[in-house]
């Protein structure tokens, strides 16, 4: 029919996107902006990536208020600060280390710390601050993990989905496959060659 709908009632709500400067996070922000939220809170560890997505969104969607916050999902105090200040009702948790080869050996524990520990911090903050819905962005590599990145994302999924329902928080996990042209994808590499 050509009519696009959104299963989450985003219109008029404050929406938080973690990892807002990443390939998936930034596209989520663009999609969310189309549904007229009262504001979007962009949370990102990379200052430059946050700047880029905020600039892009402010040009494409000038009527949508943006709150741009630099921070790490593993830092409880920073999460509490942003949840207290902006009071998001819906959270899209896209922040993660996703580059498979980089996360295999030398950075494996950082993948565990960020993808599992960081997700637990976001879940805890969402519960403490009475968030209504939390969407965890995962990966198809979590189906039968054969690498550290996939295993960390699978563990994060299991910890989230087996969490007892608390304070009315609804948790959903969605898996994405490879995003062509995304940060770290092979397409830009092939073009360079």
Brief rundown of the structure:
This protein is an alpha/beta fold and 193 residues long.
Low-confidence stretches: 1-6
Oligomer state of the chains in this structure? single chain
Mean pLDDT: 86
Number of beta-strand segments? 6
Query: What share of residues are in beta strands?
Result: 15-25%
Radius of gyration: 16 Å
Strands side by side in the biggest sheet = 3-2-1-4-5-6
Structural class: alpha/beta
Summarize the main sheet: 6 strands, parallel
Total helical elements = 7
* Form type: globular
Helix content: 40-55%
Q: What pattern of helices and strands is seen along the backbone? A: EHEHEHEHHEHEH
Distance between the first and last residues' Cα: 41 Å
Give the helices and strands, then pairings:
Elements: E1 14-18, H1 23-33, E2 39-44, H2 47-60, E3 66-70, H3 76-86, E4 90-93, H4 100-104, H5 108-128, E5 133-139, H6 148-161, E6 170-176, H7 186-192
Helix pairs in contact: 3-5, 5-6
Q: Could you please describe the fold and organization of this structure?
A:
- This protein has 193 residues and is of the alpha/beta class.
- The protein contains 7 helices and 6 strands.
- It has a 6-stranded parallel beta sheet, with helices on both faces.
- Helix 2 links the parallel strand 2 and strand 3.
- Helix 3 packs parallel to helix 5 and helix 5 runs parallel beside helix 6.
- The chain is globular and about 45 Å long.
- The chain starts with 13 loop residues before the first strand and ends with a helix.
């Amino acid at each position: 029919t050509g009519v696009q709908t959104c299963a989450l009632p985003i219109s008029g709500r404050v929406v938080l996107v973690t990892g807002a400067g990443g390939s998936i996070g930034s596209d989520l922000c663009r999609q969310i902006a189309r549904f007229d939220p009262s504001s979007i809170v962009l949370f990102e560890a990379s200052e430059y990536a946050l700047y880029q997505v905020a600039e892009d969104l402010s040009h494409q969607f000038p009527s949508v208020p943006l709150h741009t916050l630099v921070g790490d999902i593993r830092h409880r105090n920073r999460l509490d600060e942003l949840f207290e200040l902006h009071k998001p009702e819906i959270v899209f948790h896209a922040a993660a280390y996703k580059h498979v080869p980089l996360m295999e050996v030398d950075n494996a524990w950082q993948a565990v710390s960020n993808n599992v520990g960081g997700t637990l911090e976001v879940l805890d903050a969402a519960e403490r601050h009475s968030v209504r819905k939390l969407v965890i962005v995962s990966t198809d590599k979590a189906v039968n993990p054969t690498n550290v990145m996939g295993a960390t994302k699978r563990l994060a999924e299991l910890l989230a989905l087996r969490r007892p329902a608390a304070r009315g928080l609804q948790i959903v996990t969605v898996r994405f496959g490879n995003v062509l042209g995304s940060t770290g994808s092979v397409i830009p590499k092939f073009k360079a060659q």
